[in-house]
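tool=predict chain=A
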Amino acid sequence: MSGKAERIVPTSLADFIRGMPKVELHVHLEGSIRPETLLELARRNQITLPARTVEELSEWYAFRDFAHFIEIYVAISRCLRTPDDLELIAREFLRGQAVQNVRHSEVTFTPYTHYTLNRIEFADQLAAINRARVWAETELGVTMGMVTDISRNSQPTEHSLLVADWAISAKDNGVVAFGLGGPEMGYPPEMFEEAFAKTRTAGLPAAPHAGETVGPESIWGALDSLRAVRLGHGVRCLEDAKLVEHLRERQIPLEVCPTSNLCLGVASSIADHPLPKLLAEGLYVTINSDDPPMFNTTLTDEYLKVAEIFGFEDQLLEGLVMNALRASFLPADRKAEMELQFRAEFDKLRGEEGSQVQ
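tool=predict ok
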C-alpha cells in the first residue's frame, strides 16, 4: 500500500452499497465464469484443465500476469463447446448480477473466438445468449445488452469485417455496440478503422478498450479513427492534459475498473489508483468489474473498495451509478424511467429523502 490511511466503510454505508440499484458497462461474458462452472463445463465436454477440484481451480484462476490471464481465457473458451454452454454461462452471469441488484449490464463477448475454437456459428451463439437474456428479464427483472468485440491480436482485416457484419446483423436483436479488446500493445485502433466505419454507418456505437496498458495515443486513436463514444478503461488519459480537456469537454464516459487496473499493473495499489484524479478533473466516470472471478471481485466489491479507500459517500456513489445508467446504450425513454426508479430507491435506502448515510 502507499502509506495513505485506510478507511473502514461504516456498516450502514456498506449496506447502502449492497442494496443500491446498479448498472454495469464493462464486464466480459467469458471472463465472468466462476471456477465451479468452468469445472462443470470441462467435465461435460471432456476438456483437461490444470486442476481437478474447485479449490485447485480457484488457485489457478487467481490472476498472476497478463500471459496467465490469456491462458485462462483460452482454457475457458475451449470449454465452451456448444450453444448450450454459452446459454449456461450467460444465465449464471445474469443470476449473479441480479443478486447484486445490477439492473442492467452491457456485456462484452468475443464471438470469433467461439467460432474459430469450436465452430459455433454466430447465429447459434446469439440465439443461446438471447435465450438467457430473455429469461433473465422475465424471471429476474434484469436486462442485458451485448457489445460484440474484435480481439485485436486474432483479427486480420477480413476477420474484423466479418465480426462487424455479425454485429450489424444482430443490431436489433441484443447487440447494442461494437467493441475492441485484447492487448493494446502493437495493435493500435487505426488498424480497425474500416470495421468500425462499417458498424457506425449501420448505427452501432463504438465502445473500444483504450488507455489501459497503452497511453494517450491509444485513446486518441480510438476517438479519431474509431469515433468512440465510450471508452473501456481510458484511465491513462491523465498523461495528456490536452486529452483530458477533450474528454472533459465532450463528457465521453470512461469505463473504469479499479481492481482490474491493479492486477494488470496500471496502478500499484487501489489507494494509488487515478480514480480520484479522474473525478477531480471533471471526467465522466463509471465503475465496473471487467473479469470479476479472475480478479476476485464483483461490481459491489468495487464500490465497497472505492468507498473504503477514498472515503466516497453515498451522494458520490449515487452519482457514479447514475453516470453508468446515462452512459448505457438503453433507449432514452427507458433510461428516463429507470432514473426515476433509481432515485426513489436511493432515497428509500437513506431512510428519508436527502439524508446522508453515516
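Residues 184 and 214 are 6 Å apart (CA to CA). The radius of gyration is 19 Å.
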